[in-house]
Amino acid sequence: MDALCDEPAAGIWRKENFIYFDETKLKENDSDILKLRPWFKSVVNNYRELDASELPEGAVWGYSYGGLVISVPIYLQYLVGQCLREGIVIRRTKELKSVQEARKLHSSGQDAHTVINCAGILVSRLGGFKDPSKLYPVLGQVLLTRNSLENIEIFELSDPDYPDEITYLFPRKEGGSIIGGCFRKNIGPGPVVEDKELTKRLIQRATRLVPQLTDTSYKNNPGHIDIVRVAVGLRPFREDGIRIEQDSEHEWLIHSYGAGAGGYQGSYGFSHKVVQLLATRINNSKL
Fold first, then answer.
1. Bridge partners of 236?
2. Handedness of CA 269, 270, 275, 276 (dihedral sign)
3. pTM of the predicted model, to two decimals?
4. Potential cystine with 41: which of 29, 47, 49, 107 (Cβ 3.0-4.6 Å)?
5. What does the DSSP 8-state code read for residue 173?
6. Which residues contact 201 (CB under 8 A, 6 or more apart)?
7. Is residue 58 exposed (0-12), middle (13-18) or buried (19+ Cβ within 10 Å)?
8. Long-range contact pairs involving 102-108 (C-beta distance under 8 Å, separation at least 24)
9. Cα 203–Cα 206–Cα 210 angle in degrees, nearest 5
10. Cα–Cα distance between 68 and 45 in angstroms, integer?
11. Which domain of life, per UniProt (predicted)?
């Protein structure tokens, strides 16, 4: 995915990623900084541990590394364009009840050689296959703002009153930023709507922790958090993590779902694994 940063139309750019931890997070890890160091520190660019002077109020330790930011609306349009360039036929259909229905949708009119099940949040409503693992939604809420910032900022700062909330900020390539968020597992019935009190908390935390957001001398920022819209949605979690495998009962079915909140981050790796499974299936069908 790093190579896509050199493709302007992809909507991906390189940004430094800063992650901060407070005393509570440190104690949760037996006050052992080794447990807070990321497993990926040897494979990312420019990993370093922060000096005390770089830590925001409330943080006791942190690190940074060279990361990536995806502007999702731009990236999705880029991917659609790549598919069309390769001659892939894209169809809009009614909601499917089973994977068997998906097999009947091939543009040739014949049964599809392979169906890749990427049903996401709707996978629990899709029949025709088995999965012993629990599938469940996790609600997230973020603010899309006109306020710009320089780097990715993630704050692992505990709030006992709101244990399912975390403050993170991502700059958008087209300007503005994303401010989040929350991780709510037990979602009751009813519509998914904005939590206005959470919006207020996100604004308060962001302005306190990242003064640059309202610094009018930085990229002509407004002096307040200027919200374009509040985005609320459900993430498709699976109890045992993402499922990427050949179905044991249907030789024509490959699964790739349950990525939770890591769909975009892991998409290149997930896709690579799916392609490997598909190549194996194609080679076996030639025997």
1. 137
2. positive
3. 0.90
4. 47
5. T
6. 162, 165
7. middle
8. 103/252
9. 150
10. 11
11. Eukaryota
